[in-house]
Specification:
The chain has 205 residues and is mainly α. 15% of the residues are buried. It has helices spanning 2-18, 65-79, 89-96, 100-112, 131-140, 152-171, 176-204; strands at 21-26, 31-40, 54-61.
Length: 205
């Protein structure tokens, strides 16, 4: 589960970067800077041909920690208009309704609460849990129900990987280099699916 959370966290940061908002850490002075590439310009005068409606804004901010990154992500997906053909509403709307602290809850409990365990029994563990089964939960639209609480971080990782891939694939339509990267990711996902099937066959043989 901790690995699933890490996957979700890095996917979330990649999506924020693609949407034009990123946070950089100046390790020399231990300062954090937030870059917003789509800040509306304040100057209302008539623009020249080469001028843009947007500017790059840089903000000095405190250490965002995990909760800060998720807060930015939540605000971005709620405020950014993405065509339904790229990000279907059925994919995005449930994510928008998740409270920010929910994203880090399972991870924090596992890391910092010695009495916390995901399953109802210490010895109970879904060793046979497969990506195929989780994908079925994911595509059924029941990812965020209480009964699937134990799968939250895994399902979140799948969700954000899909969101990032769809967005990257769309951007790649006008950029050959990005298109190549997007194709490589899709090929990797297919390889993982084949590997999962292979493991499943081997475990039942």
């Amino acid at each position: 589960r901790a690995t699933s959370y890490q996957s979700a966290f890095f996917s979330m940061r990649a999506i924020c970067n693609l949407l034009g908002c990123t946070i950089l850490h100046d390790k020399a002075f231990n300062k954090y800077y937030q870059f917003d590439l789509w800040t509306p310009t304040r100057n209302r005068r008539l623009k020249g041909i080469t001028e843009s409606d947007f500017r790059i804004a840089v903000h000095l901010r405190p250490n965002p920690r995990h909760i800060g990154y998720w807060s930015i992500f939540n605000r971005l997906i709620c405020a950014t208009k993405i065509d339904n053909k790229i990000w279907p509403y059925t994919l995005i709307d449930p994510i928008k309704k998740i409270m920010t602290d929910k994203f880090i809850k399972q991870r924090n409990n596992l890391h910092y609460k010695s009495s916390y365990w995901i399953f109802s029994d210490l010895l109970k563990c879904d060793n046979n849990e497969s990506l195929e089964e989780l994908s079925e939960i994911f595509t059924s639209g029941n990812s965020w129900t209480e009964e699937n609480e134990i799968h939250f971080d895994v399902l979140l990782a799948l969700q954000l990987l899909r969101m990032g891939t769809l967005l990257l694939n769309n951007i790649g339509e006008s950029n050959p280099l990005i298109k190549l990267e997007s194709s490589s990711i899709l090929s990797w996902i297919e390889d993982i699916r084949e590997l999962e099937s292979f493991v499943a066959i081997g475990s039942t043989g």
